[in-house]
Amino acid sequence: MERATAGQPAHAKEPASGTPAPAERIALELLVHGVGGATPQEMLDDPRTVRISGDGTAAVHRRADDVTAESRPEDYRGRPVPEAYVWSNLTSGNGSRALWLLLLPFMVVNLAHWMRPTARRMKRAVRAYGLLVRLVALTLTVLLVAAACEIAVDLVAWQCAGTRACVADHSWLGFLAPEAAGGGGWWSQPGRRLALAAALPVALTGLLWYLSHRTWSAYESQQPLPHQPDPEEAARNALGRPGFWYGRRLVARLRAAHTAAGLLTVAAAVGASAARYDRRPGGSALLDVLGWALLAALAGCGAFVVWVVCRRGRSEHRLDQRLDRTLVRCLPLAALALLVLAVLYAGWSRPDWASTGRLPGNATFGGIALVQGALVLALAAVATALHRRAPDTRTAVRGLGGPAVAMLACALGGVMSGGGSQRVADWLDGRGGTIEGPPALLTWQASVIPPLLVVVAVLCAGLAVSTARQLRVELARVPREYPGERPDTARTRRIAAKRVSATLTDRVPLIVGVTSATTLLLGAAALVGAWASDEVPGEAAEGAPGFVEGTAQTAQALGSWLIGFGFILFVTWGRRAYRDASARRTIGILWDVGTFWPRAAHPFAPPCYAERAVPDLTWRMHTWTRATGGRLVLSGHSQGSVLAAAAAWQLLPSVRKRVALLTYGSPLERLYGRWFPAHFGPAALSSLHREVDCWRNLHRATDPIGGPVRLHGDCGPQVDRAALRDPLAYGRTAEHPLPAPLLGHGDYQADPAFAEERTRLLGRLRPAVPRPAPAQEGLPDTAG
């Protein structure tokens, strides 16, 4: 505790006579903000705030007047002490986070791991699901590194540096050019050019390793509150298990495996080219043997990498602090050693070797696409079996959300790899026809983007028609909800449009499902087309009827432009986020949603902020309740409600029963319950409702993110309060002399219902609960 330590309630000593009398017990409201972040001044509505615990990344703040609130409980009778947990810097801090855009496909495939349907007594299927997602994640690493090899090794070092016209346009490649292209130096031999060009994909692999290692130490190294959950409770929901928010061992193993996979991909790109040349008739027998030995070693090491990825998943039932140091250190070093051997082997003098045409990238990228498609189909089969065992009509895409999102992750990886290759090829081929360009498969994949966009456009048109119908219904409904008001057509339309636009969130599963299925089918068609003909679509369609040939040429040209535009968009967003704090905050919202979950499938995904935030909240609630015996309302908005629920599950049962939960604008059921049913489905949310003292949820019909949690129980007729009116007044009234704004997802505290529900929760909380004995809970006495 670095600042205002004297005001830290967790360190306060209790009176010698025991806990305070029930009438003197103080109440605390712990506020947790949502997506986009917030300042402590905004959350506490006071310009003077003090950080009482935490650091510059995530911290707990109070108003300056409330720092010593525990020493004067009589001043807070009838109202809680507000306290704000600010975690926004975990996702939108300094400019280096702009590099996280490179990790977008990895983040998406990591989400697929957590979208598993609810499983009941199907442990083998659950393990198979996690294994398949980890394998899909491994193919993404290989794909991105292979794309870097395509750019540096094939396009630059092999094609452009070996062609006189291309070297003439790019004089900086002159030292690599062979004698026939106007050069003839030491680097002019193809093998040496390839060895030098390998530096770029090696640097990319090193950057990914560095980001993963650095973010682990900064974000995910916080140990959760040690506890022993009830076995039945742990079986119901994994979020309450001791090791759920501490995946250090798995992340380290996967990081070593993926780093090795990247280095082996580079070694194969360099060594296989030289080995193919040495296998020609009349070649050197010694080099031929060395080439076969190198390829065998690469294959063996690659098989071991796959075994490491398949070997084990997460350890959640206990806090696993072991680290496989030998494996973590030796596996990347072994791959690096093979890479050095491949570079030395390729750099051996071969005076007669000349670079012509393309390197065989079709087979490489085609094999990756084939494996990815097979894995996604297998994942869909496992997800279907799990969903049928415990069907739920609210589950997104009928349990196929994980496979659909995994397919989109592969598509994002394809856009990044294909777009980068296309742009670099266009830049190098300045005069046109100087080089052959990227593999034909990448052009075929780009050519299916226009028909995919046509399908998406038709789907959006259908949604627009249904939205227009719903708008007419809302236009008739809004005036009935504000009886006695003077009709205002413009005002009614704004309210109705806001409500209808908020319902579009519920259509996302349809869009994702259709887009993923179409992507899989079109990707398969592109793969078949590329293998049937080694030519690009426009050339393959020559001689066909005019309409077919014209369509193929149009799709090829438009697709190449679109995939290149997509790559440029990634680069532009990253550059803007690096320089512009507001753009960084906008991108941070994406990370707020996508990086809540631990890195269980891909170690190069952006770091999991919840592995820092959830332990922070859990420790804060535990230490405060033990020190004071007071009442605590955990108040979460939007994504903050998800963090609040996750932290409540991590509490000791005796502490959880002394906590009330107030959520507003919450995506717990609407988004997390539908997309992540195994962890936020009806059974999990019902167990949380039973285990906390009380839970109330506020939502609006105009909120595109938050919604009801659809739970019933003894906390009133149900957890959800009826949808709040938005706006609070239709026209001008005595309470609202100016037009009341449409609040949508924000400013729930402005509604009188918020204060009513908070007061209700405080009244229901049981204050007179004896302090739990440390020996019974298995924890040290942190109260002093």
TrEMBL record:
The chain crosses the membrane at residues 128-148, 194-211, 256-277, 289-310, 330-348, 368-387, 399-421, 441-465, 508-532, 552-574. This is Lipase family protein. It comes from Streptomyces spectabilis. Keywords: Membrane, Transmembrane, Transmembrane helix. SUPFAM superfamilies: alpha/beta-Hydrolases (SSF53474). Residues 1-24, 763-784 are annotated as: Disordered. It comes from the Bacteria.
